[in-house]
Design a protein that fits this description.
elongated, 14% strand, Rossmann fold, disordered C terminus, seven-stranded mixed sheet
């Protein structure tokens, strides 16, 4: 199912979301159809400027924007008026928000220096037109594997964080218990003697003292 808006952006409701950029209407239709056959959600724009507007990277508050919809892949033609695919690639890779999104460059010209320059700038792949269904399926499989790996890594990080928090909690509990035991020892050893214990340890009440007192009384009576 397709939807059109006032900016000429065409969207279809599928699974993997691909932003396709090409100034050629024929090529846009071809790449859109191939992506739809591969069960992808497609957003199609006709220029690098429109792509930046869609991503919110043009600095214009009135940009169309993608409303938080995740873009999994950007595929763009190399040679376009106004902004080339290479320039669009650089803008995306300079963005802290979108720099991790894979970017694929398409071109009808197989120019090696151009290909190398795009790959060095961070392009995931350079495809020579015409784009084939096998190209799209290969890209989709690659992106899906990447998504699964990232999700798996995030789950592992979350699990490690939870285990670390549990260990810290157990350590804190153990430490608190040790402190309580130490406090009990201090209270026991430093507590003042009871009157009974003081009385029993007094020299006046020691056996030798009592014995001496009895002898003195006997001497006095004599």
């Amino acid at each position: 199912m397709e939807g059109f808006n006032h900016s000429g952006i065409v969207e279809t409701d599928q699974e993997l979301h691909v932003l396709a950029v090409d100034d050629s209407l024929v090529d846009r239709k071809v790449i859109e159809r191939l992506l739809k056959i591969s069960s992808c959600k497609v957003t199609v724009v006709d220029s690098g400027r429109r792509a930046l507007q869609y991503l919110g990277l043009d600095g214009d508050k009135n940009s169309v924007g993608f409303n938080g919809l995740k873009v999994n892949l950007i595929i763009t033609d190399y040679w376009m008026p106004g902004m080339t695919g290479y320039e669009l690639l650089k803008k995306i890779k300079e963005s802290s928000t979108f720099k991790e999104i894979p970017v694929v460059i398409m071109s009808s010209e197989n120019v090696l220096p151009r290909i190398n320059r795009c790959l060095e700038e961070g392009a995931e792949e350079f495809i020579v037109k015409p784009v084939k269904l096998s190209d799209v399926k290969r890209l989709k499989d690659y992106i899906m594997r990447e998504e699964i790996e990232v999700e798996d890594i995030n789950q592992r990080k979350g699990s490690s964080t939870s285990q670390g928090a549990l260990k810290r909690k157990l350590d804190e509990t153990h430490h608190d218990n040790e402190n309580e035991n130490d406090d009990d020892d201090i209270l026991f050893s430093s507590a003042p003697s009871s009157p009974l214990s003081t009385l029993s340890s007094s020299p006046l009440n020691s056996p030798s003292r009592r014995l001496k007192t009895s002898e003195d009384d006997d001497d006095y009576s004599d």
